[in-house]
Structure formats: structure tokens, C-alpha cells
């Protein structure tokens, strides 16, 4: 899995470079394909929030794609509790 994650990150960097940061797809794809598998919740949040911050009108050729990916990002964020094994807060022993 580590090798696949490394390759995915390389492709992600290249896709972001080519789109000049105007395409939400690589952000959502990396969040969904890698950070869930590796249980990196903070990176998951960061990637999806970056996808949501993209102005769909910045690149009219992929406006619809960005709107769809932003919808997917919101959906993924709404299901974070189901996707990540978040640590339970430590219980305080009662006296």
C-alpha cells in the first residue's frame, strides 16, 4: 500500500501542477484513495477543504467537473466518522 500511496501522491502533484490548482479532482481523489486507507484524517480534511475553496468559474472548461467534485467533497466530509477510526477521548476515572 505504501508504494501505491507514493505513486498516487506523485500523480497528484503532477495533476495539481498541470491544472495550476484550478481542478478539484486530484484533491478529492487523493483524499478518497489514499488518506482513508492510511487513516490520515487531518490530511483528508485539508485536501477536501482545498477542493471546496476552488472557484469553479476559475476554469470554465472544467466548471461542471469542479462542481461535481465539490459535491463529492462535501459528501465525504459528512461521512468522516464512518470512514475513520477516530480515537475515543480518554475517560477520566471517577472517584
The SS-based structural class is mainly alpha
Major sheet description: none
Given as residue ranges, the uncertain stretches (5+ residues, pLDDT < 50) are none
Radius of gyration: 16 Å
End-to-end separation: 45 Å
**Count of helical stretches:** 5
Total number of β-strand segments?
0
General shape: flat
Order of helices and strands: HHHHH
* Oligomeric state of shown chains: single chain
Walk me through the structure.
The longest helix has 18 residues. Helices cover 68% and strands 0% of the residues. The protein is built from five helices and no strands. The model has no long low-confidence stretch (mean pLDDT 90). It is flat. α1 runs antiparallel to α2, α2 runs antiparallel to α3 and α3 packs antiparallel against α4. The chain has 95 residues and is mainly α. The chain starts with a helix and ends in a 12-residue tail after the last helix.
Amino acid at each position: 500500500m505504501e508504494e501505491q500511496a507514493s505513486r498516487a501522491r506523485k500523480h497528484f502533484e503532477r495533476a495539481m501542477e498541470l491544472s495550476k490548482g484550478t481542478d478539484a479532482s486530484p484533491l478529492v481523489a487523493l483524499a478518497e484513495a489514499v488518506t482513508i486507507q492510511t487513516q490520515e484524517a487531518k490530511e483528508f480534511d485539508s485536501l477536501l477543504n482545498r477542493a471546496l475553496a476552488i472557484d469553479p468559474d476559475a476554469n470554465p472548461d472544467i466548471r461542471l467537473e469542479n462542481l461535481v467534485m465539490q459535491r463529492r467533497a462535501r459528501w465525504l466530509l459528512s461521512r468522516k466518522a464512518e470512514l475513520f477510526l477516530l480515537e475515543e477521548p480518554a475517560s477520566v476515572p471517577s472517584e
